[in-house]
Structure formats: structure tokens, C-alpha cells
Amino acid sequence: MAPTKFDRLSEAEPGERFRIEKLDIEGTMKRRLLDLGFVPGCEVTVLQKSPLGDPTAYKVSNTTIALRIEESSNIYGERIRDDNE
What we know:
This protein has 2 helices and 6 strands. By secondary structure, the protein is α+β, with helices and mostly antiparallel strands. InterPro entries: Fe-transptr_FeoA-like, FeoA, FeoA_core_dom, Transcriptional_repressor_C.
């Protein structure tokens, strides 16, 4: 079976939903992201990007969290598509 290519959370656009598959980061930053709710299987909604594009606000576990590109580019998963799209 061919490996699945995951998207980076940083590539998702405002309004899109994203399901986390893995975090490719180690140490205290990984622990921080896990504590904030960025865990595999969790659904994240991209809320909005700042005017300059960094950071971006995400809704995870009923909380709004802003992440910079260097953090969100290490979170991999898949975009959740509605059936009517």
C-alpha cells in the first residue's frame, strides 16, 4: 500500500477543517502543542490569518489558538471535505 501524503496545517486556508495525523516536532514544543489540544485525530478549524499572513488563528477543542508558520508547518494531516464540495 502506498504511503499517504499528508498536508501541512500551515497550507490550510481560513474556513477549512483539518484532521491532525501527526506532529513532526520534538521536545518542549511538541509537549506544548499536545497540551493545547493539537493531538492526532483532533479536528482543527482555520479561523483567520493575520494581515501579514503570520500567525494564523485556529480553533481546536473549543479554544482559539494562534500559531506561527514554523509551528503549524510541522503539524500534518488531511483537509476535511464536506460531501457537497
